[in-house]
Amino acid sequence: MQQRGMVIVGAGQTGGRAALTLREQGYDGRIVLIGDEPAPPYERPPLSKAFLTGKAEAAAFTFAAEDALRKAGIELRAPARAAAIDRGRQEIVLAGGERIPYDRLLLATGRAARRLPLAPAVADRVHYLRTLADADRLKQGLARGGDLVVIGGGFIGLEVAASAVALGCRVTVVELAPRLLARAVPVPLAEIVAARHRAAGVELILNATVRALGVAEGGGLRVELLDGRVLAADHVLAGIGAVPRDRLAAEAGLPVDGGIVVDAMLATSDPMIFAAGDVCAFPCGNGGLARLEAWKNADAQGALAARNMLGAGEAYRELPWFWSDQYELTLQVAGWPERGARLVERSVPGGRLLFHLDAAARLVGVSSIGPASVAKEVLLARMLLERGLSPAAAQLADPAQKLKALLR
């Protein structure tokens, strides 16, 4: 009989971190890591930046190379597709019919780029950015220069826009909302991002809807807007959000609600099955569920899920934190700024640092933008948030008041 052990479906940041953590915690049983990409676990943030511009190769951000996994006794099955979960027999069924038994199962299937409903002739020419293969294809296209139209003014679209400018492309961003980064970034910081892109020569078309995409007479692409404008493009990137890859869980009868529903320990309704990373919807402290699409969340939840698969029983308490590098600027958001009722700004050289206070004057979020020199102040601000401290608004706003002193 085949040995049972720990099986992880999804070989991205979450799955790779979980597999390594199991070994670090002293687990000496079988570990199988199933990934549908041919590459071993790698970090995704460089795909839209350093990899795209040629400043880094995949090896530089592969954190669990095949040799390292082999030495750790972790079986990497890639590329391979998990087709079903047999909960009764505690087995994962692969697309070819092979069955892999598990004592505990982690679903770290992540998310998929949301696709535009397009005819095949056009769909094959539109870029998305989620995988290393996506990034490599986009990189080869942008290396030829020309006009890039980005559909969507979110993080992926704007990071690619900045990279494309560095590669000598002419860039237009089309955004449905009246401003960039409408879902996740406070207005003052989004305005700085917009101004920086315009200064780099990027055309921003806001409050705009794409009506159709087609092939132009010269072989390029036509992007038709609802107001009648037509944009000519050599390349089109769609950055219109992502969807959780929760099909396996749903078909296995596990609760799904905007992601695979888990408890504070990242366990699903089946105590033998856990879920973590971009795909899971977890309790966020206000009675609701949150699903976060961020490197920090994916990494921390992967490690925690591994410990809890071994019986640690730890609750997930990490505060959300994400960043975006565009040009020389780094944008950071931590905590839950959307719960804030008041903004308090602290003057920092070359950037902006905002504290988000709720109606009871409690610190619930921090957001910032600026060059690397702002990083120390931002780190201290995040530490205030992580420790649950809420200094007076006047102290937060006063640049003469050292943030480090407020941590004592």
Automatic annotation (TrEMBL):
Domain named Reductase C-terminal: residues: 321-407
The entry's keywords: FAD, Flavoprotein, Oxidoreductase
Cofactor: FAD
Coiled coil regions, renumbered to chain: none
Gene3D superfamilies: 3.30.390.30, FAD/NAD(P)-binding domain
Entry-linked Pfam families: Pyr_redox_2, Reductase_C
The FAD/NAD(P)-binding domain, residue ranges: 6-302
PANTHER family: APOPTOSIS-INDUCING FACTOR 1, RIESKE DOMAIN-CONTAINING PROTEIN-RELATED
Protein name: FAD-dependent oxidoreductase
Organism: Benzoatithermus flavus
